[in-house]
Amino acid sequence: MMMRKTCMALxxxxxxxxxxAAFPDHPITLIVxxxxxxxxxxxxxxxxxxxxxxxxxxxxxxxxxGASGTIGMVATARAKPDGYTVGLATVSTxxxxxxLFPNLAYDPVKDFTPISNLVTSPNILSxxxxxxAQTLADFVTHVRANPNKDGYANAGAGGVNDLGMIWFxxxxxxxxxxxxxxxxxxxxxxxxxxxxxxxxDNFPSSLPYVKSGHLRAxxxxxxxxxxxxxxxxxxxxxxxxxxxxxxxxxxVGPAGMPADVRDKLAQAFAQAVRDxxxxxxxxxxxxxxxxxxxxxxxxxxxSERDRWKTxxxxxxxKLQ
Length: 320
Prior knowledge:
Blueprint lengths: L1 H20 L6 E5 L6 H17 L3 E5 L6 H8 L7 E6 H10 L11 E10 L1 E5 L8 H10 L5 E4 L5 H13 L4 E4 L3 H9 L5 E5 H10 L3 E5 L26 E8 L4 H16 L1 H9 L3 E2 L4 H22 L5
Parallel strand pairs: 1-2, 1-3, 6-7, 6-8
Antiparallel strand pairs: 3-10, 4-10, 4-11, 5-8, 5-9
Helix pairs in contact: 2-9, 4-11, 6-11
């Protein structure tokens, strides 16, 4: 009997680790909570293609859209925590949404397993060339002297760009009217046309207009100047070191994922975005490879959650 038990124990010890080490043995689903063709979708598909090659299994992108990305994140949080369903989180889904939606069906920290933040992308404060501000200092002086005289265009009320501008106005003690549009394209069109004089928007969508001279960029977020716009100073170097509104796109899984599965996914995605060909595709969209560790990403999510709570509570914004 003892011999039989020993044999069974040895057999289990041999079989169980092998089965676990086999991950993944079938395709993985990556839930992208925003529509196909947008920046989140592009980042997800480019990263998934390369990470799938590294893991030896296809990573299938599934767009589950609606409610500012929260529908897709609810689906991610409720999935089985075996590594075969993960989601692409953003600053909207994990930084701002928890404070904007009173009845949100997930907690950005407790209900997810952070895997890796793939890329970051800066934002730009730009003005119509006729606006009386050549520099950020000019802009601040003008806004303070003319409360609510001017408006700024944003890609949606309560979105990161709207909140980013609200935060900057809180910092400088200025007041402007928020003019919301259904996306960056119409917001940029009206700013270029002079309908609205100011816009705070994503780097990829604003870049062509700044390059062509249709918009004047006053400042860019991030820790360093962007090589595509080397003459545009950062907010930090112009005296606003604590102000940084940066878009990011990171992979998360449901809470309770096994650590070895999480780490295998993290290593694959980090390796994917650092691959030269993949990195080049990301940079074409204005996104820059990061690929941090699960621990680093977890801390980033907590930091973003706390930062945006302060901004949103002060502005007393709630969405339904």
